[in-house]
Amino acid sequence: IRIMTDFQTTFLHVDMDAFFASVEQRDHPELRGKPVVVGASPDQRGVVAAASYEARKYGIHSAMPSRTAKQKCPHAIFVTHNMGNYKEVSRQIMRIFESYTPLVQPLSIDEAFLDVTGSLRLFGDGKTIAEKIRRDILEQTRLTASVGVAPNMYLAKIASDMNKPDGLTEVPFEQKAIEAFLAPLPIGR
Q1: Burial of 80 by CB count in 10 Å (0-12 exposed, 13-18 middle, 19+ buried)?
Q2: Which of 54, 104, 162, 175 is least surrounded by CB atoms within 10 angstroms?
Q3: 40-65 per-residue burial string, b: 16 or more CB within 10 A, e: under 16
Q4: Between 141 and 189, whose confidence is greater?
Q5: Average pLDDT over residues 96-118
Q6: Cα–Cα distance between 180 and 168 in angstroms, integer?
Q7: Taking residues 18-29, what's their average pLDDT?
Q8: What is the pLDDT of residues 33-90, one digit of tens each?
Q9: Among the options 30, 111, 131, 170, which is catalytic?
Q10: Cα(22)–Cα(82) distance, rounded to whole angstroms?
């Protein structure tokens, strides 16, 4: 009896969209649709931990000094982080990942690599698993995630960033198609 089948090694990179800011917008409806910055107050020395997509339109990004963020978007709403809440949501998300594969490698509180090769027979191809994970995250946490599907972790990470927010990008698995997929990307990426 043949136990193993020849499945293509398949990795996902799941990255939550503007995680801290999205949690704040979810928990505080009055913040939805507004430029939200999680981090130090602009009148104090400190940096941006996360920025909502509405704030990112003004050029605000994580690790930027809060004063600079305020200059870029004077009407931004600054919120102090609630790490306990973010950690609890992260645990929920990691449990979702573990329901699809035991091979989860967290990179931070809001992103992880998943080796789903051994799960393909049970749950479908990589894209199908990614869609199920995104659906489960949305249903269970009311947050969105972007996912990259690829034959290795490096390509999965590149792919997850390509259609943010709430995106799903699948990298081809054949060498020539991978080269064609990568060719138009900026060299920095």
Answers
A1: exposed
A2: 175
A3: bebeeeeebbbbbbbbbebebebebe
A4: 141
A5: 97
A6: 18
A7: 97
A8: 999 999 999 998 999 999 999 999 999 999 999 999 999 999 999 999 999 999 999 9
A9: 111
A10: 12
At residue 188, the pLDDT reads 83
Q: Is 111 annotated in the active site? A: yes
pLDDT score for 189: 82
Neighbours of 126 (CB within 10 A): 28
Tokens 């004063």, located at residue: 67
What values do phi and psi take at 73, rounded to 5?
A: -145, 85
Residues in the chain: 189
Cross-strand bridge partners of residue 51: 37
With a cut of 70, say whether residue 131 has pLDDT above it: yes
Q: What share of the chain has pLDDT > 70, as a percent? A: 96
C-alpha closest to that of 90 among 189, 167, 14, 6:
14
CA 111 to chain centre: 6
Which residues have C-beta within 8 Å of that of residue 133, sequence separation ≥ 6? 12, 14, 96, 97, 100, 114, 145, 147
